[in-house]
Structure formats: C-alpha cells, structure tokens
Fold this protein.
Amino acid sequence: MYRLPQHLLSWATAALFLGFAWKGLFFDFPLREFFWNEALLSDLLASFGIDWSWWVSAEGVNAYLPNIQLFISIAFVLGFIAVWWQNMPIRSIFVWLAIVFNTIVLLLGLPGHNYSFGYVLEIALRFGTPLLWLAGSRQTISVNTYFLARIFIAATFIGHGLYAMNYYPRPYSFVNWTTAGLGISEPSAINLLFAVGILDLIAAALLLIPKPSWSIPVAMTWLLPWAFLTTLARYWANSAYEDFSYLILRWSPEVLIRVPHVLVVLAVFVAWRSAHRKLNLSRLIE
C-alpha cells in the first residue's frame, strides 16, 4: 500500500495558499483578464442591458475588483491557517473556500495563456495538491492519492515540457531566466529548453506506467532536482536585476505557489521507497 506522507501534503498546501494570499495582498490576481474580456462577456452583459463602456470604466466593475481581490486573499489566509489548526471553528468551510478560490485563480490565467490546453496541464499539480491533502487527512475516504498524485505530477511536467519545446508558444520568461541563471546565450538557452522538454515528457511517461517498480526512482532522478530548480528559478534568475528586499517581496509568492512541485513529487518518492522497503523486508522474513 502506497501512502503519501501527510505532513508533506500539508506543507505543500499551506505554501500554495500562503503564496496566493501574498500575491493577492501585495500584487494582483488576473481578475481584469476575465472581467475585461470583451469577447467573453460583452454579449452576456448586453443581455442584461449593461453597456460595455460603462462596465470597464472606473465606475463599473473596476470599482469592485480591489474588494474582490481582498476577499479572495483573506480566504487564502484563512485556508492557510485551517491547514494547521485542526480545531479551527468552521474549519471545513475555510478549507473548501480556499480550494474553490485556488481553482478559480488558476483558471483566471487561461485568457493570458490563450486558453491553451498546455496551461491546463501545467497547473494540474497546483490544482490537485489541496485535494490530495484533504483526501489524505480524511481517513474514511477511500482515495488512491498516490495514483492521483502521479497523474497530477505527470500532467504538470507534460505541460511544462510542451512549453519548453515550443509546442505551445514558449514564454519568453523561460528563455530569459535560463540565460540569466546559467549565463548562456539565447540560442543555447532555446536548445537547452528543448532538451529539458523531452526529459520532462520521458519522466512523465515513466510516472504513468501502470505498475511502477523501477520507473519511479528513474523518473525521480530528473523530477526532483528539476522541480527544485524551477521553483527557485524566480529567485536566482532575477537576483542580478533587483535588490534583495524587492526580490523577496516580488518573487516569494511565485516560489511558494510552486512549492507543491517539489513536495508532492518528494511525497510520491517517499511513498514508493517506504512501500518497497516493507516489501523487501517481508521477503527477507519469508
């Protein structure tokens, strides 16, 4: 029986909620990308007799966006507290509220990524981490969290790999951070990212083998260090351009939001190693 370490899921979920709370309190969620999307909302608003020009004016929806963002940010703060405080009053409400807003904020990134399916794949682990934690904390629920975690991880690395290979338009930040972090030229960074994308896809395929034995540790030789490096890339790639205080303020939420990429991957590896140690021990006893 493969059991994910619950403490790693707790840390991953708490980091995710804290990162989004930080981002909402000091910066912006992509609310305007949704509420100012004329192609998406203009016909709906017109059916209610709402003029589009008024809607996007200072008196329209823009007047409410700061309060909406503050409410979502507070919900994430309460969700972060609820992860650790088991006796918190109406804890389940705060947990589910944070989970719902986690999903909404992630999906708000779709317009900025041209509604790409690659983006949906890439956010899979950030979407799934709170659900894995919740399922693991409720022992009465029979859910194979180990199997689900492998799917979420594989989806995220497939999405990342497809972007790195430029199957979906490669974000320039990928190239910029690679050149800044490694001190290489842009053509070299593009070639390196293509190779990284291939390795992402291979590692994801190894995770999806139905009855893994050798495939999990082989995949982890790539997934663990790469997840760690890509999570911290926001710090080291921007350290040359920004002073330390702003570097921490600006990029810490982006790092925290990606902590699940490290901790859930680590949780899968720990679960695999623990199960195989028990199996080998039982064989020795026999």
User: Anything to note?
Assistant: The mean pLDDT is 87.
